[in-house]
Amino acid sequence: MGTGPGVLLGPGDDAALVAAPDSRVLASTDVLVEGRHFRRDWASGTEIGRRAAAANLADIAAMGGYPTALLVALCCPPDLDVAWAEELADGLAAEAALAGAAVVGGDISASPVLTIAVTALGDLRGAKPVLRGGARPGDVVAVAGRLGYAGAGLTILSRGFRSPKLLVDAYRHPEVHYAAGPQANQLGATAMLDISDGLLADLGHIATASGVAIDVQRAALDVPAAMVDAAKALGVDPYSWVLAGGDDHALAATFPPYADLTDDWHVIGRVSHGGGVTVDGRRYIGQKGWDHFR
């Protein structure tokens, strides 16, 4: 913990020292509250640590940048098991290392509610950031990563089940394509974000910021057999997970139609004149994603 190519001074002093060769620093923060964003009976400390880190590291990748460091604040009940806190630290460090970053410091405080606040820093290495407001009519919409897996896992756990493992594990520790963010930047992405609240909800942010309409093609969305089977058993439409489930932290981006996309990127829709997000040309009826205050 605390070591990495961009870390000049790790934990131990009043502040860490992180290199910023680009002279600009990407920064993002996120808070996870027990009972609202995670449950300790659903995931281990290591898995929750990975989830907390991924939520922030994905934001850096979604700007087209490279994660460099994490700062973590832990507010916890005085009787929190020390072994669990150590597992949390291991998970944070492991996910950071996976993205090429390191945990460089933080703080701890007593609190009646277990709360994990993470701040991620990143570097653009001389490139322009990819914002939400650059999508243009004629662009294609593409995704790198899985959709609906974590949402399905959450539903399964909330119903008292623990399988299929593929979906439950996706909720417990998402697999983020960190390298796809800078790659999209190099491929000429016009807008990008990570899907944390749901595909339709987050594409709505791009549509609003860019002043465009986005249409998603249902036939282009991957729905694995395990998800179809789980949806049938639970009486759920699997597309509700794919279109509105969050926490997979896949990256969604818009590209010029002539962009030569790699296999990491899968085209799922188009950008046009107008506003809002539709599915197969129609307004989607149903929940579009996570609402923090619902």
TrEMBL record:
GO terms for molecular function: ATP binding; magnesium ion binding; thiamine-phosphate kinase activity. It catalyses: thiamine phosphate + ATP = thiamine diphosphate + ADP. Mg(2+) 2 binds at D30, D59. Substrate binds at H37, D247, W290. SUPFAM superfamilies: PurM C-terminal domain-like, PurM N-terminal domain-like. Pathway: Cofactor biosynthesis; thiamine diphosphate biosynthesis; thiamine diphosphate from thiamine phosphate: step 1/1. Mg(2+) 5 binds at D197. Pfam families: AIRS, AIRS_C. Residues 136-226 form the PurM-like C-terminal domain. Its EC number is 2.7.4.16. Mg(2+) 3 binds at D14, D59, D194. One of its GO terms (biological process) is thiamine biosynthetic process. It is an enzyme of class 2 (transferase). NCBIfam families: PRK05731.1-4, thiL. PANTHER family: THIAMINE-MONOPHOSPHATE KINASE. Reaction mechanism of ThiL seems to utilize a direct, inline transfer of the gamma-phosphate of ATP to TMP rather than a phosphorylated enzyme intermediate. Belongs to the thiamine-monophosphate kinase family. Catalyzes the ATP-dependent phosphorylation of thiamine-monophosphate (TMP) to form thiamine-pyrophosphate (TPP), the active form of vitamin B1. This is Thiamine-monophosphate kinase. It comes from Longispora fulva. The gene is thiL.
